[in-house]
Amino acid sequence: MDALIPFTTSGSLVDLVDKKVMVILRDGRKMIGVFRSYDQFANFLLDSCVERLHYKLEYADKDIGVLLVRGENVVALGEIDLIAEDMVPLVEVGLKEIEEKINAETKRRERDQIVREKVLSTMGFVNEGREGDAY
């Protein structure tokens, strides 16, 4: 009877071995690679791994190689449908170009945050936490 109960622990990862997966980490990075192995703590090994950088409908892949991911850093893990992957409306651009766009966007957001904090502080609001403090 116990054999009919689906896995609810890291044992459920056995179906993903040797398949292409995407992993979203706590810091927001997205890793794509071939799922090779895992342990009881949901630590796992990705082979042929790349970090996918996005900016709007453009992307670039940064080659990582072999990556050991600690289970506590994983937010989401999913298999990539190899057929549907080709139909995604993203345009591949150069790594340097996408990094420049991401850096410019990050600087713009930081500048906007400083202005927002100044305006809110004049109204009596205090910003004690930052995005990501919930982890």
From TrEMBL:
UniProt GO BP: deadenylation-dependent decapping of nuclear-transcribed mRNA; mRNA processing
Xref: InterPro entries: Lsm1 (IPR034104), LSM_dom_sf (IPR010920), PTHR15588 (IPR044642), Sm (IPR047575), Sm_dom_euk/arc (IPR001163)
GO molecular function, one term: mRNA binding
Highest taxon above the source species: Eukaryota
Domain (Sm) ranges: 8-83
GO cellular component: Lsm1-7-Pat1 complex; P-body; ribonucleoprotein complex
SUPFAM superfamilies registered for this protein in UniProt: Sm-like ribonucleoproteins (SSF50182)
Keywords, in A-Z order: Cytoplasm, mRNA processing, Ribonucleoprotein, RNA-binding
Family indicated by similarity: Belongs to the snRNP Sm proteins family.
Biological role stated in the UniProt entry: Component of the cytoplasmic LSM1-LSM7 complex which is involved in mRNA degradation.
Self-association and partners: Component of the heptameric LSM1-LSM7 complex that forms a seven-membered ring structure with a donut shape.
Name of the molecule in the record: U6 snRNA-associated Sm-like protein LSm1
